[in-house]
Amino acid sequence: MIEMRFCHGHISEETGFSLGELLVVLALIGVILAATFNILTVVNRSRDAIERESQFAVEIGGPLLNMERMLMQAIEIKSFSPYSIVFVTDSDNNNLVEWHEIGIGVDGHLTQKAWLTDAGQNKTTQVLNATWSKSCTNRTKSIRFITAYDLQGNVVETPAQARAVLIDIEVVVDGHPYRDSRRLELRNYRRR
C-alpha cells in the first residue's frame, strides 16, 4: 500500500505494510507454527511407541520364538529351576544330541548356551553363547521363568514328569514393564 504523508513541508511517498496487515501475517505464521508443532509432537510420540514395540520384540518376542522352536524339539529335559532349563535336542537325527542351557541370571541377563555332544552326551563344542535380554526382572520380582507341567496339566518339579513348559518373561524398557509367556508342548519328548 502506498501512503502519502505530509512531512517537513512536502508530501512524501512511503511504502510498507500497515499494522493490520502485519498482525494478519503474524497470526497466520502462529497458526502454521502451532500446526507444525502438533504434527511434530504426534510424530515424536509415534516414534517413541515404535521404539518401545521394537524393544519389546527384541527383549521378549525374539527370545520366546527361539525358545519355542528349541523346546518343541526337546527330546529330554535334563533339569530345570524357576529361572533356568537344561534340555537336549537331536535336530539332525544322528543320535548325537545338542545340549542347551537357557536361563536368567541374577544380573537380569537372559542367556542361551548350546553345545554339540559326543555319544555319551558329554558337551564337546560350544556352538552358541547368546544374550537375548539384559533387562529381565523375573528374579527381582520372583516371577518364575520356567514352570513345567505333566500330561494332566499339573505343575511338576522333576524333569521326567514334564510334558509341557510355560516360559514367562518380564522386562523393563524405558521404565515400563512388559511381560509375555508361552506354553509349549514337548512334542518330541522321549517317553520313559
Run of helices and strands: EEHEEEEEEEEE
Radius of gyration: 32 Å
Broad structural category: alpha+beta
Q: What summary fits the major beta sheet?
A: 5 strands, antiparallel
Mean pLDDT reading? 87
Number of domains: 1
**Structural shape:** elongated
The total of helices stands at: 1
Distance between the ends = 98 Å
Report on the structure:
This protein has 192 residues and is α+β, with helices and mostly antiparallel strands. The chain has one domain. It contains one helix and eleven strands, in the order ββαβββββββββ. The protein has one helix spanning 19-72, and strands spanning 2-7, 10-15, 74-81, 84-89, 98-104, 110-117, 123-133, 146-149, 155-156, 164-173, 176-185. Strand 8 (146-149) and strand 9 (155-156) form a beta hairpin. It starts with a strand and ends in a 7-residue tail after the last strand. The model has no long low-confidence stretch (mean pLDDT 87).
Short structural description:
By secondary structure, the chain is α+β, with helices and mostly antiparallel strands.
